[in-house]
Every structure is written in C-alpha cells, then in structure tokens.
Amino acid sequence: MLLVSEVKKHALSVGGDMVGIATADSLSKAPGYKPTDLLPTAKSVIVIGKRALKGFIEPGKGRSVSWGMIYLNHKLNEICYEVSKFIEDRGHKALPVFFIYETFLKPDTPNFNAVITTKWLAYVPAAVQAGLGEVGFNHLLLTPEYGPLVRLTAVLTDAQFTPDPKTKGDLCPGISCNLCAEACPVGAISADGVDRIKCHNYNDAYQEVLGYSYCAMCIKACPVGQ
Ligand code: SF4
Ligand code: SF4
Known about the structure:
The protein has helices spanning 4-13, 35-38, 54-57, 63-88, 112-118, 123-129, 179-183, 196-210, 217-220, and strands at 18-23, 44-51, 94-97, 134-135, 141-142, 150-157, 189-190, 193-194. With 226 residues, it is of the alpha+beta class. Bound molecules: iron/sulfur cluster (2 copies).
C-alpha cells in the first residue's frame, strides 16, 4: 500500500519545500476545473510549494522577479511530474497539473477575468485545503513559514490519502495592515479584491520582453513569514 508519508518524502526529495494533502471532494466547488474534470478517478490532491528566494523580489519589480518566477514554474512542473511518476510506479494513477500559460493572454481577450481565474485547477484554494496556508488580502497564498514567497503545483491521484488539517487562518489582518494595497503601483488591490486586468495591463509590456510578470510589490510588502 502506498503511504502518504512516502509520497510527501519523495516530493521534498525532488525539490519541494512544503507539501500537503487535500481531498478531491473538498475542491469540488473551487473556481476553475474540479480535480475530477481533469482526472475522473481523482480522490486526493497533493499540493507542493517551492520557496521563492528573497533575492528575486528584493527590487520589488524587474528582471530578477521574472527570471525567478520562470525558474520556479519550470522546476515545479518537473517536481509534479516526478511525484506523479513515483505514484504511478506504485500502482495508482496520477496527473501532474502543470503550470499553464493562461497568464500570457492579452487583457483584451474576451472574458479575460473569467478565463484566467477559471481555466485551470486553482492552486491557491487547493493549497488552503491541503493545510499549507491561507488567502491573504493580496489574494496570494500566505504560508506561516514563507509568507507569500511560495510558488505552487499540484498532483491529482486516485490514491486515497488522509487530508492535512487546515491552518488557523490568522496570518493576515486584512485592511488594518493594507501594506500590499499601498505598495501596488496601479491600485489593483482593495477590499473588493484584486483587479486582475489592472495588474496584467501593468505587467503586460514587460512580460513580452522578460517572459513573465515583473511586478512583485504586493509580495515584497507583506510582512508575513519575513
Ligand atoms: S503584481 Fe504588482 S500590479 Fe499586480 S497586484 Fe501585485 S503589486 Fe499590483
Ligand atoms: S501585506 Fe498585510 S494585508 Fe496584505 S496580505 Fe500581507 S498581511 Fe495581509
């Protein structure tokens, strides 16, 4: 029998920094694809986080942010493939949910906001269900260990694992902190949520040159995990 402890150990050994388990059922109402839309027999979701270096975001925006995120996206794709292979070698089905490139859509794409928030398995709600952290005012995952300095990936499997307990949800005081909103150069963060079109418009020109979003002001400003 495949033990969840073996899977977690393997995820860390191939480069993950944190790993948690959610049930597929717990994500049946999350935005985007449900686990069973992608793997019809899915029972568990393994969510893996990799820490981003503080050096990447030290300038707040620029080349090092883009290059750091590009590296992490590739590395996380590798990690979730290796974890999936480990599971399949032990008799279960597994599907790596690779980072995909919806983020490269132009903001004038019809239904842009809906498309970018619904056309993949949403990593952040999965990470919350898997006990890795909570959603901050900046709509990023905040983890107790690394704050928002974490990139995520996920593996779906038909193996049935016991889910991890959710965190307490007391990391972000919201508007009484507001540092991420104050740091955003285009005012995209407010009590109404994050205006993704404003954020993408701001990042778009640089994205074409650097290959990925270049702004991390809302990450750099956050004191959680620092
Ligand atoms: S990435 Fe930059 S532009 Fe987008 S919400 Fe964060 S601070 Fe604002
Ligand atoms: S900067 Fe403050 S308000 Fe924004 S996510 Fe971090 S703790 Fe929450």
